[in-house]
Specification:
alpha+beta, Porin, 33% helix
Amino acid sequence: MSRRASIASPLALLFAVLAFAQVDVSMSAVPTVAVPLAPTLSDGLPFYELGYGAGIRVDLVPGFADFGFLRAGVDAELLPLKNGDSALTLVSAGTALGASWSPAARLSLRAWGGGGIYQALAEAGSIRNPFWEAGTEFAVRLGPTLELGLGGRYRDFLAPGGSIYQGVSVSLGVAYDLAGAKRGGGIRMEPSIRPIFPLFYTWYDENPAGELVISNDERVPLEKVKISFYAKQYMDGPRLCAELPSLAPGAQAAVPVYALFNDQIFRVTEGTKSAGEIVVEYFYLGSARTVSYPVTVTVNNRNAMTWDDDRKAAAFVAAKNPAVLAFSKSVASTARRSGSGTATTEIRTAIGLFEALRVHGLGYVIDPATPYEKLAASDTAVDFLQFPQQTLAYRAGDCDDLSVVYAALLEAAGIKSAFVLVPGHVYVAFDTGLSHSAARRLFASESDFVEIDGAAWLPVEVTLVADGFMKAWRTGAREWREAERDASLSYFETRKAWELYEPVGIADEGVAVSLPDPARVAKAYEAELAAFVADQTAARVSELNASLKAGKDPEGDLNRLGILYAQFGVFDKARAQFLEALKRRENPAALVNLGNIAYLEDKPREAVGWYERALKVSPKSGVALLGLARALYELEDFTALGAAVARLKEASPELAEKLALPGAGATTARASESGEKEIESWSE
């Protein structure tokens, strides 16, 4: 074997062992000051003067036992002789075993012991013998690669018959860690990204799309840790998820993963997978590091959702979609023109919208692939909900699809909607615009409506769209009462749910929505409105007429009958009853109600006459003053209006709150918002 081969083979073996054992290697240059202790002269003084020198050391730290190290080093020291002109030169090479302890991230305390061979050179000649040493060191880590150490060691250079030199060396050196630049990557990430639902793409900005467990496998803390998530295809830039001041060695932290998706994600019509990454930025011993971890992002189709939170359905209620607005507004205008004065604008509009859906040919079809009855019972099963314009275009849908489209049309018309949930089923309720007390006066029975936060709402079973509003309403009210009795009822208002799940609209690509024939809608609406009026008035009209014949309270019965007709827009019959009551005496209630009819029929001057006539009989009548103020506003008689408002506030502060006139101190403006006059305060 050649000399070169004999040298190369052990070196190759050494490097292989170091690589396999994952040994860290650091090199240091160490200037030293030597303080001699022995031998001594006859007078007890050291034989040598204070010396100096330098050394080079290589430390090997095994990955499996980072508390220990193996050191190899070469040193040269010059020791001047006491009271002489010559000096002793010591050149040594040796190894040592040591242990290390780190009380803080950048601090280390080390102790070692070892020995080797030295060569001593002087004028008299040279000798070669072994030496031994022991020492300690205090080191400060300046960064991943550099370390500053202050140490001391005792050395004994042996010779035949004694020691040629014994002393203490004090050193201040700089060490360079060969692997330091590569260190700091001992960080483990275990991400868990849940399937993304495009419908809630803005929701993920404040609610987690998943979780990341991050672990620090380094021997020092990681500082200023920043975790970001980025899915290039669907995000404009990384979303900062969390910032940790520090992550201790061996520690782990669970952080939420947020995402700020752009609207590109809403183009996903079929479930797909996309590439994403978790990016962790941090400082390792003052050095900035970045580690990325690739993740797979599963994106559901844009119609997908789970029923873990029922309020999510509100995000589908895209009331501002152009197709929904066009459909709703066209029907709402018809409802406001026809049947004016009947019940409330909200009730008439809701009837009109429901009948328009029937004329449009909307049908209830159970989706065999994603039936609501089964999927609603699971928090994880993925359901397919149609957006309102899709349902209008397809003219069919499951109970959840029909609920979404009806709620969207109601909201587009300015009517509050709610989703009603019973086991295996969902339908809709809407706000009638009436307080509970006003609804009790309007409806024939309290079972006809439900109360939500003091307001009267009507439940509507949307799956009965082919059977008309009346049947859908009666069925919805019955289902509500049954579920309420069984404690299985729940509901949420759409607008409140929007605060958490914003409504999302989609482009109408490939979805064409035609409006139903206005004439057919008007005919269907008027027929159903007439059925509604007859349903609510027929029995009560018969009862009041019977009471009139009995003659116990004819004046009161006439007024009550007139109010009943007036509430449902039958003004000619209402007026006849009030006038008949006046034949008996100057009845202030009948006078106020005649003023209300005149006001609703856009005859403000006539209305003023009736109200003033009522105030002559009852000067502090709140309902008369309220009506007078409204009529004076219509006449633009602002001087008289100011006086009327002042009187109203004094006589009835509660009714003054209902005054919806600009500049009149109004706090409510429902009637003015609807663009239609309405009267709640009929005088009894």
